[in-house]
Amino acid sequence: MSKQDYDVMNVEGGRPVKMWTRGVPVDEAAKQQLSSTAKMPFIYRHIAVMPDVHVGKGSTIGSVVPTLGAVIPAAVGVDIGCGMMAAKTTLTASDLPDNLGPLRSAIERAIPHGMSPKTRGFRGRDVGSWGVPPQPVDIGWAQLKDGFEAICQKTPKLKNTNNHRHLGTLGSGNHFIEVCLDEAGSVWFMLHSGSRGVGNAIGSYFIELAKQDMRTHFINLPDQDLAYLPEGTQHYDDYIEAVSWAQKFARTNREVMMQNLIAAVRSVIAKPFETHVEAVNCHHNYVQRERHFGEDVLVTRKGAVSARPGELGIIPGSMGAKSYIVRGKGNEESFHSCSHGAGRTMSRTEAKRRFTLDDQITATEGVECRKDVNVIDEIPMAYKDIDAVMHAQRDLVDVVHILKQVVCVKG
């Protein structure tokens, strides 16, 4: 680097926080949350902060937390392995039908999405899971089953999760499936999802376990969500095994969804086409062991993507905004990381209070998607400006493709 493209927030009694946030807003609550994390004694060197940073449950979204000798389960969170997958096809814009409604409907039929309301006495199947899982789901689950059974032998409480029926499903919230066009008019398929119910169960179990350990040993924390598991303990080993499996589930989940997405598009578009001309499958909520500054450390990325030299990643914009396929520059100061999206500027509740259905319809003009009151919280104006976010991390990644969605399926 010819110059320092990040700012440093010094934390009294803690490690520095290096922030790639120039030109984008950072709220004070996020800074306070980062400051609390930086004071933990096992933080390695510094915390790296991406331009999409905002307050999160458990840990700051858009942060990279390197640790020596401990892991913070709430920093990984409950959507373990959440991430993106994108695949370029040989289709072009002219191959898409003029009316994209049937294409969206075919995708919605092919992939369970959303969730049934958790009303009292509800006995039906969750619409976000499979009734009878199709063959690609069974094949994917066969590769995961033994690992899950090994985890359940140590943690029987996890056994009854809806994992098999959730494999190859989207979920809700900010998860989505899109058909996009790049700058040359090539068609891409892109989706965003994670480890679904089983990841939530694993994350929740170990977050509570870490909190119990802190109480047992009378360890005071600036925030109980910073409860940690020390390396060398059984709970640490069990968590690393379980979280690694959940990350594998999340990756497989996206692969199975992509298979069903491709099949759905082929049912509508008669022209033969190939996919995976260029393909990316990357986590942005996860932990793994990496080598940085000559040391083996655990790196937790909470809303951040690995950006090693030459590594491809995905930085999606909001519903109705541009997305980016990027190539990592391997910036060591960021622990080889970049942002995972645009980042929210307000809560979902605030977005629903501030914006109307007419605002949502205007903001998603030209995109075949849901346009109803239940997706107002995903309106583009509730997110940071993706162009400003990309400019702030120009020393972390190079842009390879710019994508604009034409079909969007939300959970």
Automatic annotation (TrEMBL):
<dbReference type="InterPro" id="IPR001233">
    <property type="entry name" value="RtcB"/>
</dbReference>
<keyword id="KW-0479">Metal-binding</keyword>
<keyword id="KW-0547">Nucleotide-binding</keyword>
<keyword id="KW-0436">Ligase</keyword>
<dbReference type="InterPro" id="IPR052915">
    <property type="entry name" value="RtcB-like"/>
</dbReference>
<keyword id="KW-0342">GTP-binding</keyword>
<dbReference type="Pfam" id="PF01139">
    <property type="entry name" value="RtcB"/>
</dbReference>
<dbReference type="InterPro" id="IPR036025">
    <property type="entry name" value="RtcB-like_sf"/>
</dbReference>
<keyword id="KW-0464">Manganese</keyword>
<keyword id="KW-0692">RNA repair</keyword>
<protein>
    <recommendedName>
        <fullName>3'-phosphate/5'-hydroxy nucleic acid ligase</fullName>
        <ecNumber>6.5.1.8</ecNumber>
    </recommendedName>
</protein>
